[in-house]
Predict the structure.
Amino acid sequence: MFVVYLKHLQTWNRTLNLTSITSDDEIVIKHFVDSFAALNAVEISSGSRLLDVGTGAGFPGVPLKIVRSDLRITLVEPVHKKTSFLRFLVGLLRLDDTEIFEGNFDQFMSNRQATGSYDYITTRALKPYLIMQIGAKLLRPGGAAIFYSSQSMSEFCFLNPWNLMNDYAFDLPRGFGKRHVSICSPSSYG
């Protein structure tokens, strides 16, 4: 499935500029490997509902869905060309229980009655404070946000009621840099 994903990402990227990363090695490491690193940072229960905000060409939501077919994923992306690619890819790979919302996070919040609907919110694209401002009400009790970054969030000034639960640091293969997957939870939920 990852080979098919890679092939179609590169094909679509030639005309639609879905990602600035274009070589096979970099896509595999910087997008695929980085995306499912969250599975080392937090134990995600079977059947969990995950909201991936600012998913772009599907990161981290689609790689997580490929390795964990039991997850129920909602991909939020405002750019039409990227949601077109995601619809094609989700259909091609037959990724059941994967929904695509075309719009930004504020539009998603305005258009959905999603209060208490998700176990996890993920993002590689948005600043953490954007999720922290309104994301807590989307989470079920015990839910958490998963932030992907090149820096530790241990020095981050968290918005009340959020707390850092885990900061998983790792080096990407082949010297592609240091990454962090930070797990944060509203204290009233954690």
Summary: The radius of gyration is 16 Å. The beta strands are 49-53, 72-77, 98-102, 118-123, 139-149, 162-171, 178-186. The mean pLDDT is 92. The chain has one domain: 2-186.
